[in-house]
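Example record

Each entry pairs one chain with its bound ligand, nicotinamide-adenine-dinucleotide.
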Amino acid sequence: MTKMKKIQNFINGKFTNPISNNWIDNYCPFNGEVYSLTPNSSKEDVESAYQSAEFAFTLWSQTTLEERSRILIKISELLEKNLERFAEAESRDNGKPISLAKAIDIPRAASNFRFFGNAITQFASESHESVGQNAINYTLRQPIGVVGCISPWNLPLYLFTWKIAPAIAAGNCVVAKPSEVTPMTAYLLSEILNEAGLPKGVLNIVHGLGTTTGQAIVVHPNIKAISFTGGTTTGAHIAKIAAPMFKKLSLELGGKNPNIIFADCDYENMLETTVRSSFANQGQICLCGSRIFVEASIYDKFKTDFVKKVKQLKVGHPAESSTDIGALVSRLHLDKVLSYIEIGKKEGGKILCGGNQVIIYNYENGYYLEPTVIEVNSDECRINQEEIFGPVVTIMPFKNEDDVLHMANKVKYGLSATIWTNNLKRTMRLSNQLHAGIVWVNTWMLRDLRTPFGGVKASGVGREGGFEALRFFTEAKNVCVKY
Ligand code: NAD
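Structure tokens for the complex follow.
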């Protein structure tokens, strides 16, 4: 029997096994088989990671911005150099098509390091002259100390590095935990960190379950900020612990994003993008437009054309270049998504296409699901209100702008929204009034890393991206000097 690959923690620049010697099975979504073991790190491992981060902070917080920038850009280059290896690992761990990991996930992880490596050299603080009082105030932007970064499984390396890169660029040291469902690329990243010359202890990666390792990071009294991306329930739990400890908190949580289509849009572009915004990454992107509202006058045409295109998407093995939809991330998640399809049927939803698990020859135990379109007759049904986070979208018609605005906003979430129209005034009216942190008009997921990223209502607290992230990972200290 071949020995199972063991993922290790990365603490103080070294690979280590968990102190408790406790391991979790890591499944491959292609075929449902366990293919590696992940540490289930205890609070002792987290303490060890904290100690090494705390020790490294003295030096790292005083390292020049140019030097920090140089190292971050080096990490970015090494990720690019290892694109194939990382993309294969991401695909095998998560189930996404390799083509997607190659085109989006890994290049974006590299961009995160390059972007914040550059951004930190442009990050400046303010000064205020107190006119008439012979005084000047200047504001220091100091790193916080040791911070915790916790990320989900849907865009594993992409979202992990989206937190880590600004944290270390700003001079903090980090205890980071990737999702236990997709730990592999965070593990591979550890190898690159030493090669890039990141001083030991600046970034420590501990693997494990949320309830053990994640919890240990959140409750640690000296980890002063938590940057978290994941589910809304987990976010609420973390906030309950962190708020009375006065930790800085950034919470990027769930979504149920509306995709609003007016009759006057550029139809072909809208149609093609809507297929993508519904099913990219198996619908497992927090920004996917899972509630599609279509103006009544083009509803029937849209329904026919959209369903036709969705039926053409090929569900298949993630390594095959012809695959559009890979495997869902886990058995548990597949079951959750299937259960929502059942709920949809019971609520009177009409399955226009999909709805079934897909069995692929030789990979019968993989987690494959048909892309599913459900026509609903009320925006208030559960499948229109609750986050499914899989290849399932709802569609329904709307009468007018007020009508759709009301429905779009009538959910507990508020992450993103997409509007398709060529009416400028309408675009501006709706963008102003939609409950969302991000609004796309006539596009979807066009990302400029300088822009604020985050949600309102149950989609989170705080903004990531650009200088917002560097502000989050620093404390402002005002110094008032009288002359
Ligand atoms: P999750 O909340 O189950 O887990 C996210 C991370 O939190 C994992 O690393 C997990 O181990 C950890 N965790 C779980 N319990 C914890 C605890 N008690 N203390 C500390 N850490 C804990 O979410 P998931 O299932 O991995 O990800 C899917 C969710 O993430 C969806 O709701 C999706 O919308 C959301 N998401 C949001 C964004 C965004 O930017 N807003 C981006 C991607 C995903």
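The chain has 15 helices and 25 strands.
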